[in-house]
Design goal:
Elements lengths: L2 H18 L11 H25 L3 H20 L10 H22 L6
C-alpha cells in the first residue's frame, strides 16, 4: 500500500480514537459524535500530508518529527476554537493529536511502500 493511502486510512482510524478521548472530558460528552467526525477528518488530513512527506523522505527520525509537528499543528488549530462557554481544551486536544501524528509518521515510514521511480 502506498504511503499516502496508508496515511489516509490509518489517519481516519486513529482520528476516531483521538475523538473518542473527548469522552474523558465530561463537559463535552454531549458533542462526542461531532468531535469524532471532526477528529476523523483531521486524521485524514494529517495522514495525507504525512504520507506524502514519507514518500519523499525515507528517514524514520524525520518521519516521526514531521508527523509530530503536523499532528500538533492541526490539533492547535482545533484547540484554538473555543467551546460553547468560551473555554479552550488545549492539552485535551493537542496531546492526542500529536500522538496520532507521531504514530502516522512511524507507520507510513515503516509499512508504506516507497514510490516507484
Amino acid at each position: 500500500m502506498s504511503k499516502p493511502v496508508l496515511g489516509i486510512i490509518l489517519g481516519v482510524v486513529l482520528g476516531i480514537f483521538d475523538g473518542l478521548t473527548a469522552w474523558f472530558t465530561p463537559e463535552v460528552r454531549d458533542a462526542l459524535a461531532g468531535i469524532v467526525m471532526g477528529s476523523s477528518f483531521k486524521g485524514l488530513l494529517a495522514g495525507l500530508i504525512i504520507g506524502f512527506f514519507s514518500r519523499k523522505v525515507s528517514d524514520m527520525t524525520k518521519g516521526l518529527i514531521f508527523g509530530g509537528i503536523v499532528g500538533l499543528a492541526l490539533a492547535t488549530l482545533v484547540a484554538a476554537m473555543p467551546g460553547e462557554n468560551g473555554e479552550h481544551y488545549w492539552l485535551e486536544i493537542m496531546i492526542p493529536g500529536t500522538i496520532v501524528g507521531i504514530i502516522l509518521g512511524w507507520a507510513t515510514q515503516r509499512y508504506g511502500k516507497p514510490a516507484v521511480a
